[in-house]
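Tokens in:
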């Protein structure tokens, strides 16, 4: 199977992290370091924030969940965008909160003005993804900053940066500066994507000390395993792997966009490690790909039944996918 359905890193787990895990297994008869001391030290140095501003999660999904648990009482409101990452709705439900889902812009991106307007006295949390999954939309830093400046202090913003490592140099911004500025901001990041550790389940949140203390108090004590902590330390230091990941993704995303557009399919511009493409009869195209051993993601749960999300693979995987698509029966081409 060629797995292009879950936005994983097609390079596989970094060799450096594999070695670190092998060594860490020697100590896995003991509980993990509940405070993740060594990893937090490495992250704090990298991000230039105090270790007391860091919360480790079993994937960044757990950070999203913790934010809802900590910030929102049952019946209070969480605001997020239509086509926002699926876990926002799940985290809202886990907190027994009410979701206010704000219609997306015509380009499928978050409508930040409408999201601001949707905030009421009952609102406690707003999820913003940059870039967003599954649409790939990117919000330029000035627009995002203007948004943060207008969110009331009593409303927490969870800025989900799961794909931030894939941003082009011209798109990059320092959300850490914003964490210094806004006491109501949590930035969530993950080791699942660009760092190639999805199966180990590790991510983190960055927020000022008071909010971090609340997130940590709610966190299950041993939520991040010893091998996961060791792997994350190794991956964080592996700048070569990250550089290869970035270069491969940028080229592969262009390869997919050009190939798909060349066949006449509509593809949204993406800032992540995946593309969203419109196939009309997406179910038929999905089935045709599966029959050839290629798995991509259907988006019916997002209300996008005519679209497929295709993760960027290795160059030869992308080429193979495009070749298979070229042979998709005309009957499936109902655009
Ligand atoms: N945020 C977004 C936007 C994502 O796409 C994902 C993974 N699909 C995550 C967060 C969470 O990833 P993980 O829990 O593996 O860190």
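Residues out:
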């Amino acid at each position: 199977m060629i797995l292009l359905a879950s936005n994983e890193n097609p390079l596989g787990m970094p060799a450096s992290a594999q070695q670190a895990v092998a060594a860490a297994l020697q100590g896995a008869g003991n509980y993990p370091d509940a405070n993740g001391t060594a990893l937090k030290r490495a992250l704090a140095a990298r991000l230039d924030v105090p270790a007391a501003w860091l919360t480790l999660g079993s994937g960044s999904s757990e950070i999203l969940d913790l934010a809802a648990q900590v910030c929102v009482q049952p019946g209070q409101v969480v605001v997020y965008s239509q086509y926002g990452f699926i876990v926002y709705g799940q985290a809202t439900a886990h907190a027994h909160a009410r979701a206010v889902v704000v219609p997306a812009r015509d380009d499928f991106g978050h409508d930040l003005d409408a999201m601001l307007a949707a905030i009421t006295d009952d609102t406690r949390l707003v999820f913003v993804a940059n870039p967003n999954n599954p649409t790939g939309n990117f919000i330029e830093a000035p627009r995002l900053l203007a948004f943060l400046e207008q969110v009331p202090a009593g409303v927490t913003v969870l800025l989900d940066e799961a794909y931030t490592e894939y941003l082009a140099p011209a798109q990059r911004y320092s959300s850490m500066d914003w964490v210094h500025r806004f006491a109501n901001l949590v930035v969530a990041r993950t080791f699942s994507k660009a760092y190639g550790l999805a199966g180990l389940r590790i991510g983190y949140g960055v927020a000022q000390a008071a909010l971090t203390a609340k997130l940590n108090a709610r966190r299950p004590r041993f939520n991040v395993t010893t091998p996961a902590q060791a792997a994350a330390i190794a991956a964080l230091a592996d700048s070569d792997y990250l550089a290869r990941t970035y270069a491969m993704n940028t080229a592969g995303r262009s390869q997919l966009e050009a190939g798909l557009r060349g066949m006449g399919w509509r593809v949204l511009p993406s800032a992540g490690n995946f593309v969203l493409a419109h196939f009309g009869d997406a179910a038929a195209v999905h089935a045709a790909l599966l029959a050839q051993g290629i798995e991509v993601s259907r988006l019916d749960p997002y209300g996008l039944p005519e679209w497929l999300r295709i993760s960027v693979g290795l160059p030869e995987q992308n080429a193979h996918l495009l070749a298979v698509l070229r042979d998709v029966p005309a009957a499936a081409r109902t655009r």
